[in-house]
């Protein structure tokens, strides 16, 4: 009896944990879409992009299905939103297009777009510079009070300009305009990727996997017993 309970406790934990993970993926609560009233206008750049990529407009956002039960923000339109500062856009870090034009923005730091590696088009008030500077973008245009930063350049792949160096045993990945990230190669971790060996996460997932197996086995056994008694 004792051993049976010891086996059951981790399986229940796994079950509850899986349920929590599933729920957190189901509920999308993008605060950034409610930063100001109204929805993405149909005729706007974000609106046109959204309908051409069969997205769903929710407030100031355009959402698209990533997997069957997870949506992500692919477009954000905060134009004419009375914004003075740009921060807390992190929820939209997967966006391909962002419109911040027609706002009296006083201050915008480059770090506001750290991690926005998918961003291809950014509309800003004409007096605000493109994040990461002009050299982080393929094209910078200014027209009718709107600055367009278009075609984000990959910092890992800048021929001529200041070459990017990641430490040994790591590789470079784009991490938003003007940013890059060095990720450790397989089997390396820790400061400057100098520690060799598998990351503990693998071991943890291994353990979770084992508990799931036990759960499946238990279910199979109980169901089989039921089937036999019928
Ligand atoms: C996203 O997936 C749901 C459920 O599978 C579906 O009802 C919905 O139409 C999809 N939305 C888009 C924009 O593809
Ligand atoms: C901005 O919003 C105000 C009302 O909030 C509206 O009167 C004005 O026409 C809008 N401007 C643009 C360019 O959409
Ligand atoms: C802009 O922000 C930076 C850092 O967030 C700050 O140091 C600077 O004083 C700000 N400038 C203005 C004009 O608010
Ligand atoms: C960046 O490009 C824009 C548009 O071409 C230009 O107006 C601006 O002066 C440039 N900024 C810098 C720092 O070179
Ligand atoms: C690096 O840049 C060249 C030319 O700009 C491009 O053809 C190539 O695909 C880029 N590679 C990566 C990994 O971005």
UniProtKB/TrEMBL annotation:
Signal peptide: 1-26
Species: Hippocampus comes
Chain ranges of the EGF-like domain: 182-193
PANTHER family: ALL-TRANS RETINOIC ACID-INDUCED DIFFERENTIATION FACTOR
Name of the featured protein: All-trans retinoic acid-induced differentiation factor
Keywords: Membrane, Signal, Transmembrane, Transmembrane helix
GO biological process assignments: positive regulation of osteoblast differentiation
Keyword Transmembrane annotated: yes
Transmembrane residue ranges: 201-221
Listed InterPro entries: ATRAID, EGF, LRR_dom_sf
């Amino acid at each position: 009896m004792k051993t049976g309970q010891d086996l059951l406790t981790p399986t229940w934990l796994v079950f509850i944990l899986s349920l929590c993970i599933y729920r957190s993926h189901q509920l999308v609560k993008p605060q950034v879409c409610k930063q100001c009233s109204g929805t993405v206008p149909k005729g706007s750049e974000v609106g046109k992009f959204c309908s051409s990529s069969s997205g769903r407009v929710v407030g100031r956002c355009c959402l698209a299905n990533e997997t069957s039960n997870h949506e992500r923000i692919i477009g954000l339109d905060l134009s004419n939103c009375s914004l003075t500062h740009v921060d807390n856009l992190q929820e939209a870090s997967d966006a391909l297009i962002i419109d911040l034009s027609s706002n009296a923005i006083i201050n915008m730091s480059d770090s506001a777009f750290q991690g926005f590696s998918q961003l291809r088009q950014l509309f800003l008030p004409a007096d605000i510079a493109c994040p990461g500077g002009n050299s982080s973008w393929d094209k910078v245009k200014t027209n009718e009070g709107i600055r367009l930063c278009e075609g984000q350049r990959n910092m890992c792949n800048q021929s001529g300009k200041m070459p990017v160096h990641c430490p040994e045993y790591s590789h470079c990945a784009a991490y938003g305009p003007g940013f890059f990230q060095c990720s450790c190669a397989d089997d390396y971790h820790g400061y400057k990727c100098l520690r060799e060996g598998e990351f503990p996460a693998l071991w943890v997932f291994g353990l979770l996997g084992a508990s799931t197996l036990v759960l499946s086995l238990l279910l199979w056994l109980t169901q089989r017993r039921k089937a036999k008694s019928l």
